[in-house]
Amino acid sequence: MISAIVLISAEVDRIPEVAAAIAELKGVSEVYSVTGDVDLIAVVRVRHHEQLADVIADQLNKVSGVLGTQTHIAFRTYSKHDLEAAFSLGLDDA
Asked: What's the domain count of the chain?
């Protein structure tokens, strides 16, 4: 699985609509409204590197109200939730 974090600048008066439209795109797992230099952060998860272009360049960037994006591809994922799930396997059956 390839994960990308997409920082999104959006038209300020359309942030909720832009976020909702992006959240509906196949490959987008989460969209966060945030403070700071960008308006939204989307997490994109795909199986093949080429699919990043399909989701980000061909769809996300074309959502009405998106002004610009910066994409960061993750090398590794560290998640407390993932670790807890892995360590809890089989514990309920004991």
From this structure: 1
Rounded-to-integer distance, Cα 93 and Cα 30, Å: 32
Question: 45 Cβ partners below 8 Å, 6+ apart?
Answer: 1, 2, 3, 4, 27, 29
Instruction: Note whether 70 and 4 are within 8 A (CB).
Output: no
The answer as to whether 25 is a domain residue is yes
What is the residue range of 70's domain? 2-88
**pLDDT tens for each residue of the chain, 94 residues long:** 899 999 999 999 999 999 999 999 999 999 999 999 999 999 999 999 999 999 999 999 999 999 999 999 999 877 776 655 555 555 554 4
Please tell me the pTM assigned to this model: 0.82
